[in-house]
Description:
The chain is mainly alpha-helical and 147 residues long.
Amino acid sequence: MKKITRVLFFIVFFVVISGAALLLMSATKKEPPFLPGITVKDDHPNGCVDCHKKINDKLDYRLNVSLGKLEGHPKIDKIVKNVPKDCFMCHKEGAKAGKLELILHKAHFHNPKDNHFISNYNGACLNCHSFDEKTGSMPVKTGSKNW
Ligand code: HEC
Ligand code: HEC
Ligand code: HEC
């Protein structure tokens, strides 16, 4: 082989190999994890009330409405002013109403194949919890009632 042909051969060889490597790398490149407030913008900074709201007359996800349909649930329209802070007045350790975090973790992660919190909101803990970079604490976001 002439020297020039050999050099050309190696250039072509190099281009093909690095092209294939780049393609492979982009195909396996991982999306960053969905962490509202950390890796992506937090669309629900007020927690519950940013999702449980009235969309239109047919779709009303407000908590006073859905809890109002729950048999035996006390009316919360007047007594709950901050969500979920005021839910704790009844939903605390040892009370008949049950602990709020157990009820809510269950409500948002049950039936994973057909759960809209998982399918529509990535099931992210940080939809409800916030992250304080300074202290490391992950309290629950709160918001004023929307009824
Ligand atoms: C990012 C959106 C989002 C946030 C934030 C959120 N929820 Fe939900 N929640 C949902 C979705 C979606 C469901 C329906 C889950 C399913 O498909 O079973 C649900 C279900 C529920 C249910 C079961 C009854 C119902 O209304 O469907 C309760 C009660 C509830 N949420 C309360 C809360 C409370 C209290 C908070 C705040 C601490 C909260 N949620 C935060 C989206 C959200
Ligand atoms: C005045 C007291 C009171 C307040 C305030 C209250 N709850 Fe309740 N809640 C109850 C009681 C009592 C039950 C149990 C009802 C029953 O089983 O008969 C209950 C049951 C529930 C259930 C059903 C539990 C299950 O295991 O399926 C959900 C969900 C719930 N509450 C969510 C909430 C949320 C969210 C808030 C705040 C927005 C709230 N509650 C505020 C008293 C309260
Ligand atoms: C629908 C809202 C919601 C989601 C989603 C959620 N949490 Fe919570 N979580 C709460 C609430 C409300 C509390 C009670 C906070 C308080 O006591 O101030 C809580 C409390 C906790 C606690 C402390 C109490 C306990 O049960 O030990 C831990 C730990 C926790 N959550 C972990 C998680 C993790 C991990 C995820 C995601 C896999 C998650 N949570 C998703 C609402 C949520």
